[in-house]
Every structure is written in C-alpha cells, then in structure tokens.
C-alpha cells in the first residue's frame, strides 16, 4: 500500500488548505478516500455532532497534483480508505498559507508507516533570511480502514433535485442564515423556476422572508428531473437552521457563488465549484415543521 502526491502551485496549495480548514470546523474526524485519479474527503453525520451537516469534497488529482501515485494493498482493490483528525490535517497544512515572511515552493503528501500509519505533510519553505529551502514536516496519524468495512465509508451520491439555483453572494447568505438561526429552529428554502429564492424563518412572534430575485437558474440533469413538465414550478424544503448555519460558517474558501438544489420535502443540496473538477457538496435533510 503506497500513496504519494506533490503540489507545486501556490494557489492550489492554499485552496487545499482551505478545504481541510473547512472540514476541521465541521467535525473532529474526516475520511480520506484515495483512488487512482481522485481524492475524496468526507465529513459524515455518523462521525460528528448532530448540529453538523454531511459534507464531502471530490478532487481530481490532475487539478492539484502534477504527481499523484496510489498503489492499493492488493491489485484488485480500487481504493485506500483512511480516517484521520480533521484538525490535525488542517494544522499540518497551515504552513501552506504562505505570507510575506516565507514562501512555500512545494508540498508533498506521503503515506508512511513509522510507529503508526500516518500521512506525512512535507512542505518546502524558503524564508527571506535564507535562500536555502527547509523542510517542514508534520505526521498526521491515520487509521487504515480494511476493505471489509468500506461499505460504512462509501462516497455519498448527489441527490436528485427538482430545481437548482445559483446564488452569487455567498457572504450575504452566510450572514443572513447566521441571524435567522436565532429566530427559528427551521428554515424554509422556497425556489421557483422564475429565478427566485425565498428564505423563510417563522416564530410565534413573526415570519421573516428574504427574497433573492433574478438568480441564475441551473437545469438539473435530465435523469434527475421528473418535474420539468410545468413551465413554472415552485419547490420548497424546510431544514435545520443550525445545520445550515454550521455549513456556511465553516466555509474557508474564497468562492462567492453557491448552487442550491431543492428536492421538495426531502433535502437541500449545496454545491460549491472550487474548480471544474474540485467540488464541495453538502446535504441538509428535511425536517418536519
């Protein structure tokens, strides 16, 4: 069993750290699934507090890693599955946030067996006081999941949604939901094919509705959409406000647009396209009002 990957682009290294920092804010542990051309991180509800949502990130190896090698324990196996502390991984990658005092030339990830299995994060750093690079090494302990237990760590599937709306102001949405969590335990997402999204918070004292109009309407995949017969359709779903707030407050990525898919009375699917082949997903299950 072997794994080795190397990053050379500073922007990609910062994004990779931002992904790890986002996961660290959502859960104590995270799952890393390594495939031949993909790397996945999962924060599963079974492994975190009830106030945190299900989140997973899929990364195409060619986008971040010029060199990416994965050899499973046996030829017939497709993956290496690891469980690790999300906080430890985020701290190990914190050196990639290079500031004016130093610059990072490269970062290597290496699965090693020392006294315990670990992912070694090896960053090549150059400081202004010296032209010679130095290596900063952090060993993040991991638990190797045997194939017999992989069924408990399967990559989630993006649920079918009847409407997908693109919201261009992620910062505004985060601030709004953070305030609404103090008003109502549930939050209703109400979208329409006319390009409108309403967020509704209800309490005994008041009902607050925030309307986003002229938002970008994304078409769901043909096999996913079974409601496309109507010219204009309204879809709504109520979710736990704390889970929605936990997701938006955890985001450390600079993206401004987020896609919100609504599956009536079942779930809200949130999608952040970091790059064309680097995508963060979250599912907020429906709650009864």
Automatic annotation (TrEMBL):
Record Gene3D superfamilies: 3.70.10.10
Signal peptide: none
Keywords noted in UniProt: Nucleus
InterPro entries reported in the protein's UniProt record: HUS1, HUS1/Mec3
Keyword hit for Nucleus: yes
Protein's cellular compartments: Nucleus
GO cellular component: checkpoint clamp complex; nucleolus; site of double-strand break
Keyword Transmembrane: no
GO biological process, alphabetically ordered: double-strand break repair via homologous recombination; meiotic DNA integrity checkpoint signaling; mitotic DNA replication checkpoint signaling; mitotic intra-S DNA damage checkpoint signaling; nucleotide-excision repair; telomere maintenance
Pfam families: Hus1
Protein family (similarity comment): Belongs to the HUS1 family.
Protein name: Checkpoint protein
Protein encoded by which gene: LOC111595740
